[in-house]
Write a structure and sequence with these properties.
single chain; 295 residues; alpha/beta; Rossmann fold; Alpha-Beta Plaits; 2 domains; six-stranded mixed β-sheet; four-stranded antiparallel β-sheet; 10 helices; 14 strands; 32% helix; elongated
């Protein structure tokens, strides 16, 4: 049976004053997934979120959320959004912020409200302007998690948090998805966070997705083939499909592959290395080779 998709974006382009922020971005976000949207600062992550929420119109391409064209008001009613700025009213208390927000959402969950007030240890009577950055983040998440949203879109949700608070937020997201049948789409440039909780991932660079897929599938398909030679490693070009990058350093030649490992190894043996080793790779290594390696 075909996988149900919450977000479908095809060949998205978006320019600001002649500068391309998105350059043919294509994404498919399955229902019920925790989808990590990974990239360096300036890669196009926030622009993508604005397009998904109808806050910006693409220059070209198609995007649908819940099967609806981007910009349809129904999308915002069914979506919880937390921006990187964690927009809140400073003059309100925590309780006033919650009481102000809840009536806008008919599916507001009072049970979740009480759960996250306790879990996040939010001080009900304290003014928002007096909250630490981490506590502001937890309040913004509470407001998103309690509205009965089918989709949570989070822009750098743990930005500025200390490691303990980051862990608390990440675990809350995992538990929420498991218990509430919600889809989470979260942007980050923190590889470890994506690796920890995401089950699907897209790596974006310069406005287009360079890697997409289920995280387990990516871990299974990507490999490093390490060749060691008696003398300096030779210059080599590989014809087998799946070669992502070839690095040469001293006696070692390292090939990153996204598939077709056996064919690459067969080509490699023709170079007569002293040894050939095939090793699995981490998400960090995939990221560094496909994005940071483009510097």
């Amino acid at each position: 049976m075909a996988e149900s998709l919450i977000i479908e974006a095809t060949d998205l382009h978006k320019s600001y004053d002649g500068v391309e922020a998105l350059r043919g971005l294509t994404l498919s976000v399955p229902a019920g997934s925790i989808y990590g949207f990974l990239g360096r600062n300036g890669a196009g992550k926030t622009t993508t979120i604005k397009v998904l929420l109808g806050m910006a119109r693409p220059s070209s391409g198609q995007v649908r959320v819940f099967g609806l064209e981007a910009g349809n008001p129904e999308i915002r009613r069914r979506t919880g959004f937390v921006s990187e700025e964690k927009d809140l009213y400073d003059y309100m208390t925590v309780d006033e912020m919650i009481r102000f927000t809840a009536p806008f959402f008919p599916r507001w969950r009072a049970d979740l409200e009480q759960r996250y007030l306790r879990k996040f240890e939010l001080p009900s009577n304290r003014k928002v302007k007096a909250l630490s950055r981490g506590t502001r983040t937890k309040l913004a998440l509470l407001l998103a998690l309690c509205r009965g949203a089918e989709l949570l879109i989070l822009d750098e949700p743990t930005s500025g948090l200390d490691p303990a608070m980051t862990e608390e937020v990440l675990q809350a997201l995992v538990a929420h998805v498991a218990g509430e049948e919600t889809t989470v789409f979260f942007s980050s440039h923190q590889i470890a966070e994506v690796d920890q909780i995401a089950d699907h991932v897209a790596i974006i660079d310069r406005g287009c997705a360079v890697v997409t897929g289920a995280l387990d599938d990516l871990r299974e398909s990507y490999r490093q083939i390490q060749l060691v030679f008696d003398g300096d490693a030779p210059q080599a070009a590989f014809g087998a499909p799946g070669v992502v990058r070839v690095r040469r350093k001293g006696r070692m030649l390292t090939v990153m592959s996204s598939g077709g490992t056996e064919e690459i190894v067969e080509e490699a043996r023709a170079l007569q290395p002293v040894s050939v080793e095939v090793v699995p790779v981490t998400l960090k290594e995939i990221f560094l080779e496909t994005v940071a390696g483009e510097e």
